[in-house]
Amino acid sequence: RVREAVVSTQSTGVYPWGNAYERNRMNIWQGKFPKENKGKDGHIGVAPVDAFKPQNTFGLFDMIGNTWEWTSTVYGVDPQTKMPQYTLRGGSYVDSVDGKFNHKADVTTRMGNTADAGSDNISFRCARDATSQDIARNKKQEL
Predict the structure, then answer these.
(1) Backbone angles phi, psi at 133, to 5 degrees
(2) How far apart are CA 97 and CA 26, in angstroms?
(3) In whole angstroms, what separates CA 22 from the centre of its chain?
């Protein structure tokens, strides 16, 4: 799968591109939360998926920040409704670079939500299986 190939060929960094935070690589909250998002990254709210350069050598956009990404992985069970929660990953535009409010937007960020949840900061990724040529091409780019 693409996600498995991406994980296996990427560094074990905090961000899809490595360990150092880089401005204008993701859409996150910039300002005093929740009153003021200064939009220094060019966006207040959800940004177009290709608003920032790809976040890894596979050319994938928005691996972190912008919107939470639904996965098919079960996170747990909602204690009130008893419905299964599915894992959301990557954080969104209402999250922060350091986790001082909401969530820290990085590659390890996860939370759960029920399948009936909806918000403008939750989305999903369309993907396809990675071919052996995709993986070989990516390994050459890393060298």
Answers:
(1) -65, -40
(2) 10
(3) 15
